[in-house]
Amino acid sequence: MKLIDAHVHLSDAQYAGHIDELIADAKNAGIKALVTNSMDLKTCQSDLKYGEKYPNLVYPALGIHPWNVNVLKENELEEAIDLIQRQKNTVKAIGEIGLDCKYETIWEKQMMVFDKMLHLAESLDLPVIIHSRGTTDKIVEMLPSYHLKRVLLHWFSYPMSALISAMDNGYFITEGPAATYSNGIREVIEKVSLTNLLTETDGPVKYWKNPYNGQLTKPSFIRNVVEAIAEIKKIQVDNVAEQIAKNFEVFFNIKLT
Q1: 84 phi/psi in degrees, rounded to 5
Q2: In this structure, are residues 240 and 233 in contact, taking their beta carbons and an 8 Å threshold?
Q3: Domain range for residue 160?
Q4: Would you say residue 257 lies in a domain?
Q5: What are the pLDDT digits (tens) for 9-27?
Q6: How many helices (H) and strands (E) does the chain have?
């Protein structure tokens, strides 16, 4: 069984000192791909190194996260764009990028950075991985004005109207460990087509309910997610895993080994 973690943050400080443990866990659990998403210039640089160190397992997605927009250093955005352009043959997606409703005081700056990231994805013909807390409707409405290769809405939760629009546009979504206990996420999984779905951990985000109980988030949690999807959709676990692996190959243009 090939399992996929399409959204994780290996360069997050909470994972410092745990990378070897996480890679070993991934291999033992049958994880065939980890897409490590950047937040700023520093994590862009670090995620590239992880991709080099763990080929055919760790794949870098580089970008500026909306949470980091207000703490960007002088020229950091330009340097990140330059880095991504120089590494265009290694970068597998532009991410994690997007908008966040909790940072309305810097809305114009969020919009400016998001726009630059989307235009970068256009110019490099790369897919995008999008953070859309409280802004999904707006993002789904604005994306068709760009010429984007493929779109992934990370940890999609609401509203359902945006989910329908996203599927109509051929977008993908990811869901993670919350699939085992969140009624809202389980409803999304029930309604989304399996051909538009990928799995994630979003580590090092922690999950406090059973069976996770606040432990370090590991790639092996993906097995729980796949089993939850199979239960919700009444499909065999192996069939779910197989389709999600195919979705990964299509979205990222990567052939799994």
Answers
A1: -60, -40
A2: yes
A3: 3-252
A4: no
A5: 999 999 999 999 999 999 9
A6: 9, 8
Show Cβ contacts of residue 25 under 8 Å, excluding neighbours closer than 6 positions. 218, 219, 220
In CATH, what number is assigned to the domain containing residue 89? 3.20.20.140
Beta-strand relationship, 58-62 and 3-8: unpaired
Coil, strand, or helix at residue 127? coil
Residue 105's CB is within 10 A of a number of other CB atoms, namely: 9
Angle at which helix 41-53 crosses helix 76-86, to 10 degrees, equals 20
Q: Average pLDDT for residues 130-157, to the nearest whole number?
A: 93
Token pair of 214 as six digits = 């606040």
End-to-end CA distance of the chain: 12
Quote the number of domains for the chain: 1
Half-sphere exposure of 4 (CA within 13 A, CB side): 27
Q: Is residue 85 included in any domain, yes or no? A: yes
pTM of the predicted structure, to 2 decimals: 0.95
Q: Which tokens hold the place of 146?
A: 């760009």
pLDDT digits over 190-236, tens only? 999 999 999 999 999 999 999 999 999 999 999 999 999 999 999 99
Instruction: Tell me which residue has tokens 């996203």.
Output: 166
Contact 64, 33 (CB under 8 A): no
Residue 121: inside a domain, yes or no? yes
Strands (E), 132-220: 151-153, 172-175, 197-199
Instruction: Give CA 72 to chain center in angstroms.
Output: 21
Structure tokens at 52: 């080099």
H helices of 194-236, in order, are: 222-233
Residue 107 CB contacts under 8 Å (≥ 6 apart), including other chains: 99
